[in-house]
Design brief:
12 strands; Rossmann fold; DNA-binding; homodimer; 2 domains; alpha/beta
Chain lengths: 339, 339
DNA sequence: GATTTATCTGTAACCGGTTACATGAAACCG
DNA sequence: CGGTTTCATGTAACCGGTTACAGATAAATC
């Protein structure tokens, strides 16, 4: 492995000059610079990241704290893959790498990892429930961005979808399709998306001049079984809803199934809309009307927010990024002007 | 940030002693050790990973080379999430971290990243097509393990599922259900799973004493559309197959859809089995009979293979790991003894 | 031509660990 | 009891970069 000293000797210059060629090329004569670069190419020189980190305290690495939070080990992010691609791409364009942090342990584990590796920042992916690790980190002044979960902290911010707006769009869409008794299967209230989507549901009904009936609001768990159970409760009501907005696609699919099992037609008797546009949404029959998020945008926005904080150590954290959510109309919401 | 020298001064010992407390505790008196540990806890000391890496050439980090390979940017790993969990868990138990390598660029990009960060090894995730980057890395002597793709190299190995066995099990299952005209929608032949699953199909037919008709073998692309198109070709044959083994679930779902669109009953007229057990497999109706892989096992096996190579620098690479594939019987293969 | 200024380069300390080797004290031995 | 081992510890070089500061040279100024 060629080092900076090898290059220096070979070119008859000092190590400082070689270092400058890579970090501050303008501070060096053109000939010197080119000679050094030639030698570097010849020797296959690659600067050592640890050495640089040791000297500068900057690692050009950001941690990925990816925990399952409180929804248990079975929790899966609805689009981890696109998220990671977006994150990785945006980060690597700016010369940053992603280091996956080992899960959980104690609440300070992440903070220790940050110190141990001189991480420049960390991004949190979890299920949206409060996590002491994030809170600790955010308070400690390390640049943090979390996904789908609000944080406070001088150098902490978050990116999320327009959950309320998307939910409202779904509800408005069901209304446009002629439905009036619109229920919702909400997500767990302690999750940010769960709470926001419910808020969007309520706001949309209010804006449409429809009453919010509390028996039309049942809380699910974001999983298939929860959606199924919730739907059964809704169908057992005296005045059965003619449409259901489920705050997650798995729940929506569970709801559709429960309706079909009850001998009802979907969307004839009850229309259904979901949220997330997971892969199965387009594969089940009838295909699920849902709200899609800007998947790659999440990663890109997180990277951008993080880098802006890293670049300017004493700037305040940028405001939260709210990505647009887009209604995807398929079959479960029924044909236009039906109902 | 407390350093080893701070601890040394505070305890009245030398830096070497402090270092030994952490790396070779037995080489130090119990009292000294405890005093140092106490001071470390008190000061919140965390050893610096870059400094250690610089001195030892070992980073305790393995790279994750995650490329889309030749199946294009739309390619998604069927269970990236479980894979990463398995990998991360197994690695972190042994004190290793995962560094996500920036995609592609040139073929030597990965090798440079390895050198730059003193990575101890790298794991490759791609779509199973030949990738020069992996070949280069494997040849260079860096410990490598790839997923679902054979590699050769003194310190390179791979982990894969029993693709042939799983495919054979699916075919045998269709046969048991009374089907005799069993076709296959194969994956791209240049991918390892594609080739192996086809081999398993052929082997199973041979073992059952059934002829392999070449018109019953059509190649798909692992995607929905490919499965759909392939099924249409199969259904147009003079002697229509009464069962189809698709080498991937998306193709299988496409095939089911094509059959339904052609007015056929699934599984009544044609039974279908897939491979991978992707999430939608259990969500579509009729639910898809398929072959499930040991998802978490992939990550764990990759980590184990990698670590064994790292621990013993001049041992040969361990033999490939072949994880069991398990038949998951659902609805598309029909009821027992039907047909 | 002397003085100031700008530009480029070199020297050496430093980042925070590891480790070969030296040292001194205590334990062991015949 | 002198000599050898053993064991715990210390000294100092080293890993591969960065960077403050100083020095040298050339250009600009008067």
């Amino acid at each position: 492995m060629a080092t900076i000293r090898d290059l220096a000797r070979r070119c008859g210059v000092s190590v400082a000059t070689v270092s400058r060629v890579f970090n501050n090329p303008d501070a060096v004569t053109r000939e010197t610079r080119e000679a050094v670069l030639r030698a570097a190419a010849l020797l296959g020189y690659t600067p050592s990241a640890p050495a640089r980190t040791l000297a500068t305290k900057r690692s050009c690495m950001v941690g990925l704290a990816w925990d399952t939070g409180h929804r248990g080990p079975g929790w899966r992010h609805p689009f981890l893959q696109e998220l990671l691609v977006g994150l990785k791409t945006a980060l690597s364009e700016r010369g940053y790498h992603l280091l996956m942090l080992a899960a959980g342990e104690d609440a300070d584990g992440h903070l220790r990892a940050v110190r141990r590796h001189s991480l420049d920042g960390v991004v949190f992916i979890d299920d949206g429930t409060a996590d002491p690790a994030l809170t600790r980190l955010a308070e400690s002044g390390v640049p943090c961005v979390s996904l789908d979960r609000p944080v406070t902290g001088r150098r902490a911010t978050y990116v999320t979808s327009d959950n309320a707006g998307g939910a409202a769009a779904a509800v408005r869409h069901l209304h446009e399709r002629g439905r009036r008794r619109i229920a919702t299967i909400a997500g767990p209230g302690r999750t940010h998306p769960g709470a926001e989507r419910l808020a969007g549901y309520r706001a949309a009904l209010a804006a449409l001049g429809l009453p919010v009936r509390e028996e039309y609001v049942v809380e699910g768990d974001f999983y298939l079984g929860g959606g199924h159970a919730a739907m059964r409760r809704l169908l057992a009501l005296d005045e059965r809803p003619d449409a259901v907005f489920a705050a997650g696609d798995e729940m929506a699919i569970g709801a559709v199934r429960a309706a079909l099992e009850a001998g009802l037609d979907v969307p004839g008797d009850v229309a259904v809309a979901g949220f997330d546009d997971i892969e199965p949404a387009s594969l089940v029959r009838p295909a699920l009307t849902t709200v899609a998020q800007d998947r790659a945008g999440f990663g890109a926005a997180a990277a951008a927010a993080l880098i802006s904080m890293i670049d300017d150590p004493d700037a305040a954290a940028p405001p939260p990024t709210v990505l647009p959510a887009r209604l995807v109309v398929r079959e479960t919401s029924g044909p236009p002007r039906a109902g």
